[in-house]
Amino acid sequence: MKKVLYTLACGAVLTSSVMADFSRVEMGAGAWMQTPKGSASYTDGGADGLYTSSENDKTETYVWVLIKHPVPILPNLRLEYVTLEDSGLASGQFKDFNIDPAPYTTLSYDMKQYDIIPYYNILDNTSWITLDLGLDIKIVDASYTAAPSGSFTGYSDSVTFAVPLLYVRGRVEIPSTEIGIEADVKYITTGDSTVYDVRAKVDYTFDFTPAVQPALEVGYRVQKLDIDESSIDAKLDIDFSGFYAGVMLRF
């Protein structure tokens, strides 16, 4: 009977250890200090619409959640949210409005981005290395406003679309420390268009208790939207880049 109880106790400890390794929830939030740069144009049917970013520094809030479970056949899940804003000068004729005869007007826009990322662990802290592969569905909820100028009465509109991107994440835990180095890439290219979202960071975990572990993260992020397709009336070449910092919790 003692042997049976001992075996069951060992099994329970082992199962608990395995679940601790293969079940995890992480979440984080912080501020991304970035500078939008670039331009957009609309030339369909002889139109001559042009937008140029004013390249003003912005600070935007980001939030993310990672959910890892022990069922190998099902993908794990990462969710992200960030809002990007920009403003600049616009001129000429666009699809639904014409700024002329005023020479320029102010155009501002924001893009709320929701990233839904199912992924698989290829390596899970194997020799301190983690490697994830998956698919990112980036849902963009964009709205823009062209301010009144001269005889131009102004215009506003919104659009929602989804962009699929390949997702790769790599992480290295520095042995005998609470420091992690991590990078992830979301990328797609088709024809003359390329979209990518790249991050690299360092984080430090405060190992106060195994149940809840707070951490700090500092990194650099670059997002590029280069859209140039014959089937699309507008061309877009915008990037957002800058440092970010935030707090994390691991469960």
Protein model, in words:
This protein is mainly beta and 251 residues long. It has a single domain, classed as OMPT-like (Lipocalin), CATH 2.40.128. 8% of the residues lie in helices and 67% in strands. It contains one helix and eleven strands; from the N terminus they run H-E-E-E-E-E-E-E-E-E-E-E. Strands 1, 2, 3, 4, 5, 6, 7, 8, 9, 10 and 11 form an eleven-stranded antiparallel beta sheet that branches. Strand 3 (58-68) and strand 4 (76-91) form a beta hairpin. Mean pLDDT is 88; it is low at 1-21.
The separation of the N and C termini measures 36 Å
- Which architecture per CATH? Beta Barrel
Number of helices: 1
Please state the CA-atom Rg, rounded to the nearest Å: 23 Å
E-strand count: 11
Query: What's the CATH H-level superfamily name?
Result: OMPT-like
Overall structural domain count: 1
Model regions low in confidence, pLDDT < 50 over at least 5 residues: 1-21
Write a short abstract of this structure.
The chain is built from one helix and eleven strands. It is mainly beta.
Key features of this structure:
single chain, 251 residues, mainly beta, Lipocalin, eleven-stranded antiparallel β-sheet, elongated, disordered N terminus
Which helices and strands, and how do they pair?
Blueprint: H1 2-22, E1 24-42, E2 49-53, E3 58-68, E4 76-91, E5 105-126, E6 129-146, E7 155-173, E8 179-190, E9 193-205, E10 213-227, E11 234-250
Antiparallel strand pairs: 1-2, 1-3, 1-11, 2-4, 3-4, 4-5, 5-6, 6-7, 7-8, 8-9, 9-10, 10-11
